[in-house]
Amino acid sequence: MIRSISEILNMAHQAETKEAKITILRENVSQALTTILLGAFDDRVEWLLPHGLVPFKVMPDGSDQEGRLYQESKKLYMFIKDGGAEVAQIKREMLFIQLLETLDRKDAFLMVAVKDKKLPYSTITRDLVDEAFPKMLHIEGRPIYQEPTQDDPAPIEEPPVEAKKVVAKKKRRGRPPKKKLLDQDRLESSKESV
User: Fold this and answer.
1) Would you call 137 exposed, middle or buried from its count of C-beta atoms within 10 A (0-12, 13-18, 19+)?
2) Phi, psi values for residue 179, rounded to 5°
3) Tens of pLDDT along 2-40?
4) DSSP assignment of 73-97
5) Is 15 within 8 Å of 46 (Cβ atoms)?
């Protein structure tokens, strides 16, 4: 069974030590989790949705939608400033409500908190996320470029790819050429039979 994003964050929230919280976040890292954490803590992310509660129908318990936020996180660009979606504000709010109604109960309430730039888990802070995933968050006042440290993994160098010259064959126009008979005897025998 797949863990929902809210379950992962709740496990990290309930962990006793800071190191355990960081380990849980790192072991369960995914595109959806990093998107949620960026939405809550990154200074560059500005939500185009009103703050506060959202009127939506909560999914009933036992609906088996725990993994739904993994798929729906790819659509969050529609609700962020400069996300690339040209959507009218009323349509954007309706789409967000529809998104919430397809999510598991806990994930839906998590998304309501994330759009208000916070998490419902008090021990998961911006500093903890910044320590778990260095250089992921853009924090105001911190330079964008940071010198690499010894803890950073070495960059992967890809082998050079040799370019191959592609020569296009000329297309012949008109009727295809007649096939030549290779066997001279066949040619002579066909003449005799005529």
Assistant:
1) buried
2) -75, 140
3) 788 999 999 999 999 999 999 999 999 989 999 999 999
4) GGGGGGGBTTSS----HHHHHHHHH
5) no
